[in-house]
Every structure is written in structure tokens, then in C-alpha cells.
Amino acid sequence: MELTVLGCGDAFGNGGRNNTSFLVTEAGEHVLIDCGASTLIRLKYEKIDLEAISTIVISHFHGDHYGGIPFILISSLFEKPRKNPLTIVGPEGVKKRVYELQEAMYIGTADQLDELDLKFVEYKHEESLSLGDKSISVWKVEHSPPSLPHGIRLEWHGKKIAFSGDTSWTENLLPLSRGTDLFICECNFQKEVSFGHLSYEELLRKHQLFETKSLWLNHMANEVFDATDFKFNRLYDGQKIRI
Fold first, then answer.
1. Alpha-carbon gap, residue 133 to 57, rounded angstroms
2. pTM of the model
3. Confidence class of residue 148 from pLDDT cuts 50, 70 and 90?
4. Right CATH number for 2-242 from 3.90.226.10, 3.60.15.10, 3.30.950.10, 3.90.1150.10?
């Protein structure tokens, strides 16, 4: 199994990094974990066939995490009409949110989404969903409440990958990370403690509570990405991690 970092930047594109999106690949099938606004651009750079993406899992309703869906769907309607089904998994109201975003981004196209074989699945806190050979578990995290923020764990072919989403420190990160082969955790700041995001100094104090084989940081402002004498692994756009 391989994870490709399509984007690991913050909402402001600091350092020229793309919005958050991770492509998990196994036996020619792709799963997207988050789909920020820049995702289609990076998928094209990586020469990924959209038909092979079976599932998109969204952590919360902010543009740098799900704003790329309309671009993928417009491409799937007009550029290369999609034949395979696509499942979009997200918090409560995910179908309504996607349709509204589609219409806002490309007015007049929301009704055309019915031409695609789309399935929408809602998740709830501490719930596990079975999607064929995949299991998705979620925990609430601490970020902008209207965005319905969650951390996500994907279990697929015996591997476990978890992603914190955007969050302040919360004890829910512990069961989220438990027993994982890879845990991607946000780290927006170096020292500052701000609601909705974690800092490097917080993680220095608390990272040993995580039960994971491999910890990598995501959603970094420049102060984190450029820091020297750093104790954790930092993701970068285009990186590929074997799991």
C-alpha cells in the first residue's frame, strides 16, 4: 500500500504547498482522504486516472479540505465522463454540502451530478463504517464547530492509516491513533496555542501518548515547515510513503 501526499499545506498555501489531500493506493484502486481545492491539479501532475478513485473521505467542511470535489466532479462530467461509481464519505449533510458547493463553483451543474454514479455516506462520532473491503472509523476533534470536524481512520487490506484533521489537542486523538501503521497529525504552529490547531511544543509534550508505528506532521505554517532541530517527520507535497 502506498500513500501519496497530494497536499500538506495550511489554508493559506504557505510555502506554495497544496491544500490537504492524501491518495491511498492499493492494487490499482485509490482512496482520497480529504480533497482540498488544489487536489485535481496535483492528481493530474501525478497522472492519476480519476476512474480509479473509488472513495473520497472528508474530515470537515472547510475549503482546503473538501473544496476540490467540484473540480473532480466537473472533470468527471465533461472532460472524461466517469463510468465507475464514486463514494463520498463525510459528516452529516455531506450530500447537501457537496451539491451546494458544486452549484456555487459551477452554476447550473449541480443537477447534472445525477448523471454520475455517486453514493454519499454520512458518518458519526466513534462510528465504524464498512465500505466493501474498507472500514472507516471517525472521532470528533476540536476545530471550527460549524465545519463538523473529525479525525479519520482508514483500515484497508490489513493496514491502518489515521488522520487527525484540523484540531486542537483532544483526547480523541488517542483512540484515533491507536494501533495504526501511519498517523498523520496536524501541526500548524511552532509555539502558539490557538483553538482549532496544534503546535509543535504541544506535540513534544504529548506525542508519546500516540500508539502508532509512524507519525508524520501535516498542515504546517512556514514556521513549522522551515524549523531546524525538529524532532518529528514532516510531510511534503509529492511524497510517497510505503505502508
1. 15
2. 0.96
3. very high
4. 3.60.15.10
